[in-house]
Amino acid sequence: MYIIIAGAGVVGFHIAYLLAQEHHEVTVIERSGEAIDNVRRQMEVGTVVGNATLPNTLKEAEAHRADLLVAATDSDETNIVICFTAKQLGTRMTVARVRNPEYSSGYFIGSGTPSSPSRKIIRPKTFGVDLFVNPVTEAAEEILDILSSFYSAPVKNFANGLIQIREFRAENEAVVDKSLSEVHFPKPCRVVAILRAEGIFIPAADEVLKEGDHVYLITAREFGDKLGTMFAQPKPPARNVVILGGGRVGFMIAERLKANRVSIKIVEKNTDRCQEIATALGETATVVQGDGNDRDFLIEQGVPRADAFVCATESDEINILSGLLGKSLGIPRNLILVNKPGNIPLAEAVGVDVAASPLLLTARKIAHFTLHGGAIAVALIGGERIQAIEFMTSPTAQVAGHTLKEAGFPKGAIAGAIMRNSTIIIPSDDTAIKPGDHVIIVSPLAITPAVEKLFM
C-alpha cells in the first residue's frame, strides 16, 4: 500500500514509523528540512520537503497513486486543505488529524430557528476527507470507558463486540507465580500477550506470570468480567472523579461525566483557565486552582476519597508523578495521559493503572485504512509492537479449509479466537478455518503483511 504522511511532527512521525514497520511504502511531506533529516535518520521512507497544501508538492509525492494520505500537521484547516487537494489529484482515501471537536463530530450544525431547525449541512467527504481523527476525543473516550467499567483497563472489541481482548493486571494468588498451563481458567479464553517493564511479548504455555504483569486475554464478551476476578479485585464504576489538568482532554472528560451525574473536581494551575472551565461546567463541577504534585494540597482537597484520579496535563512527567502520588494516596483508579508512547513502560513500571496515549489511539484508528486480505478490524496491544486483526475468511483465502497447524502462519502469529455463525471458538492447532469465519490473529507488526497474504 502506498501511503503519504503530510507533517513530520510527533503524530506524523509516529504514524509513518508504524506504517513503515508493517512494510508499507511511505512518503513523508514536511516543510522543515530539519524534521525531514530526523525522519531520514530513523526510518527508510520517501521524503519530500515542501508545503503539502500545494498541488505541485503533492504531485512530487505522487499523490495520484496514493492509496491513503494522512494529513497530520498542527493545523486543522491545513489538514483539511491537504486532503481536499490530494483527492482532486486522485488519492484514494484521506484522513485528517484535527483537534477541534466540531470537525471530528462529522458535520457542522447550522443555526436553528423555529421555522428552520438545526441540521447536518456539511459532511467530511464534502472536504475530500474520508475520516477525521481527533486524538483528544480518542483519549477521552478510552478513559471514559475505563471509568465506567469494573476493571482499570481498556477493552478491544472484535466481531461486533462478541469477542473481546481484555487487559488485566496480575495481582491475585490464583495466577501469580504460575505458568499459563497451570492456571485453570473457568471460561474459554487464551492469553495472547503479556506486558512487563522490559516490553510486550506473545507468551508460550510455560510462561510464568509475575505480579504486576499486564495480561491480554481474548474471550467471548460475556466471560470477560468473570475471568477478570482471577487476576484482580473488580471495582465499581467511578462516581467521584478528580481530574488534573483542564486542557482539551480533561475538559472533555468532565463534560461527559457531568452528563452521567458523576461528582467531578478539576485541578488546574492556570487561574484564567480555571475561570473558563468553571463557567462552562457550571455548578456540576468543582474547579480549584493548584498544583497536582503537591501532596498536602491534594489531601486538603479530599482527593484521597475519590474513586478515580485522571492526570491529563500536557506534561508526561507531571502526569506520571501525579498518578504515582494518587496511587500512594490510596485512590483505587489512577489513569494518566501520555503524549510520548515511549513513556508508557515507565508509567506502567511505577504502578499507574492505565496510560492512555492519544498518539497510539490515533494510529489505531488510521490502521483500519491500511488493512488487506479481508481484514475488518485492528487494535494495537500494549503499545505499538503487537496488534490484533480480525479477518473475514473468504472462500478463496489460502487458509480456508485448513487447520491452524496446516495454515502456514508465520512464527510469532497466533489465532486467538474464531467466530463462526455467532459461536465463539477458542481454537486449538487442529481447528479448521472455514469460509465465513471471523478469525482474530495476534502478531508482531513486522509479520502482519505475511499474515494478511494468507487471507487473500
Task: For the structure shown, list the relevant keywords.
456 residues, Alpha-Beta Plaits, Rossmann fold, 14 helices, single chain
Blueprint (SSEs and pairs):
Layout: E1 2-6, H1 10-21, E2 25-30, H2 33-42, E3 46-49, H3 55-60, E4 68-71, H4 76-89, E5 93-97, H5 101-104, E6 108-109, E7 120-122, E8 131-133, H6 135-147, E9 155-158, E10 163-169, E11 189-196, E12 199-201, E13 214-220, H7 224-228, E14 240-244, H8 248-259, E15 263-268, H9 271-281, E16 285-289, H10 295-300, E17 308-311, H11 316-328, E18 333-337, H12 344-349, E19 354-356, H13 358-367, E20 375-381, E21 386-392, E22 414-420, E23 423-425, E24 438-444, H14 448-454
Parallel strand pairs: 1-2, 1-4, 2-3, 4-5, 5-8, 14-15, 14-17, 15-16, 17-18, 18-19
Antiparallel strand pairs: 6-7, 9-10, 10-13, 11-12, 11-13, 20-21, 21-24, 22-23, 22-24
Helix pairs in contact: 1-13, 6-8, 6-13
